Amino acid sequence: MSSKEVVDNLGTIAKSGTKDFIKNLSGDQQKDACLIGQFGVGFYSAFIVSDKVKVISRRADLPIDQAVCWTSDGLGEFTVVNLEREDRGTEIILHIRNDFSDLLSGWKLREIIRKYSDHISLPILMCKEEWDEKVGKQIKTNDLESVNQSNALWTRQKSEITEEQYKEFYKLVFHDFEDPLIWTHNKIEGSNEYTQLFYIPKHSQFDIWDREKSNSIKLYVRRVFIMDDSDQLLPRYLRFIRGIIDSADIDLNVSREILQESREVNSIRDSSVKRILNLLDDISSKDNDKYLIFWNQFGQILKEGIGEDFSNQERIAKLLRFSSTHNNDKDQKISLNDYISRLKPNQNNIYYITSDSFENAISSPHLEIFRKKGIEVLLLSDRIDEWMLSSLRSFENKSLVSIAKDNLNSEDITDVEERKDLTSSSESLKPMIDRLYKSLSKT
């Protein structure tokens, strides 16, 4: 930078030189520029940890003696002087406050860089450190090494990424020794631009039933890590998902409160839910064995969506799997569409029974009449089923009916002749019932 540029860009809080720079780029250049400092306040975060900040800079087209040194203690004033600098470019020197001295350790800096800037496009170099036996600590060397990966896999075209690369990226970022079960990778362009990369693991996490557990979705803004525990990115019933959302439009200084009110984030959330449900629907229709692996691990979690996401309830219901008297199998393999495909003529309901175990459900005496008539009954024994059914009352215009309820409508389970016999029996008993009623009334 020149002396004037230093004063203009560093001497004014909330004036973003980066934003002005981007405005001057052409269309394609502007689209491809992965520049993050566009809010005019990022540089001043240095004063949170520093007593003094010094910036030494020289533009490439200026002579050596026209380099500039900008210095400030962050209290409102700064000084600018010219000096000599052979190399073009900019050097920023932070005088770290005593209460932030841990930032001077190599491991701490590496930890911060790998968390927040691991995937920015440019390499971040630090001096290598080696263990010195004599002094008993790490010693800096003159050799430089790249601390960050400088490779954001999700920013590449899907056609350029191999299946093995997707798997290795998952294991590296989410610290899983197993390959993922399935994944989906999409780039959305338009008024709200963002990229989604979602994985479904093969096995559930040990704390999957903890509803207070933070999700495993990492939010990035132009490759810079922002947060990974916001409930605004996905609903709780999809907490088994691991993935990355990288937005080009969300502010870098976004807070959880702003996320709750952000129209962009709401749009991303809705799109993400749709994308994940589409992925599950696709795999359930194309690879049933793989879907059943998913269901056995995460099916009970997905059931929470029936009562929590009414806008997608029908789509979630199609993904549910149950045990059934159709095959008397404990494994949950039967979908509601499977059940409907086997409805008896004039059957208007989907019948089910709930119990605390599969064994108790399948041995229930309530099943006797349904077995006799060849009517299928779903066998529900998960703890969440009663709660789920309080929200799921029908599917494809068929009511879900418990066979253990007293108000069970008998029309599905009795044919026309049986109903005639029942009516005839009732009429033949009417005289006797009338006599009993009169006799009891006198006493």
UniProtKB/TrEMBL annotation:
GO molecular function: ATP binding; ATP hydrolysis activity; ATP-dependent protein folding chaperone; unfolded protein binding
Keyword flag Chaperone: yes
Pfam family, one: HSP90
Residue ranges crossing the lipid bilayer per the database entry: none
Record flagged with keyword Cytoplasm: yes
Keywords noted in UniProt: ATP-binding, Chaperone, Cytoplasm, Nucleotide-binding, Stress response
Signal sequence region: none
Binding site for ATP: M1, N9, K15, S16, G17, Q38, F39, G40, V41, G42, F43, T90, R256
SUPFAM superfamilies: ATPase domain of HSP90 chaperone/DNA topoisomerase II/histidine kinase (SSF55874), Ribosomal protein S5 domain 2-like (SSF54211)
Gene3D superfamilies: 3.30.230.80, 3.40.50.11260, Histidine kinase-like ATPase, C-terminal domain (3.30.565.10)
InterPro entries, alphabetized: HATPase_C_sf, Hsp90_fam, Hsp90_N, Ribosomal_Su5_D2-typ_SF
Similarity remark: Belongs to the heat shock protein 90 family.
Protein name: Molecular chaperone HtpG
Organism field: Strigomonas culicis
